[in-house]
Specification:
- The protein has one domain.
- Strand 1 and strand 2 form a beta hairpin.
- It is built from no helices and 3 strands.
- It is an all-beta fold.
- The relative contact order is 0.32.
- The chain starts with a strand and ends in an 18-residue tail after the last strand.
- A 3-stranded antiparallel β-sheet has the order 2-1-3, with no helix packed on it.
């Protein structure tokens, strides 16, 4: 996983570098987003799929 781009409800965007190779079941670090309470409109991920089946990754995003 290279990076993720978060788009907020007000149109501003935040680019977060991840630079990590995940294996099945791995978790990322806790990512503290800038600002206080915000509405997240969209999250886009940039990653390479490195498996023989060419299936896309399944990404679960949790927040509070």
């Amino acid at each position: 996983m290279h990076k993720m781009l978060i788009e907020y409800g007000n149109g501003s965007k935040e680019n977060i570098s991840l630079k990590h190779n995940f294996k099945k079941g791995d978790n990322t670090r806790v990512i503290d987003l800038k600002g206080r309470k915000r509405v997240i409109k969209d999250i886009s991920f940039w990653y390479d799929t490195k498996n023989t089946s060419r299936r896309k990754a399944v990404v679960h995003v949790l927040g509070r």
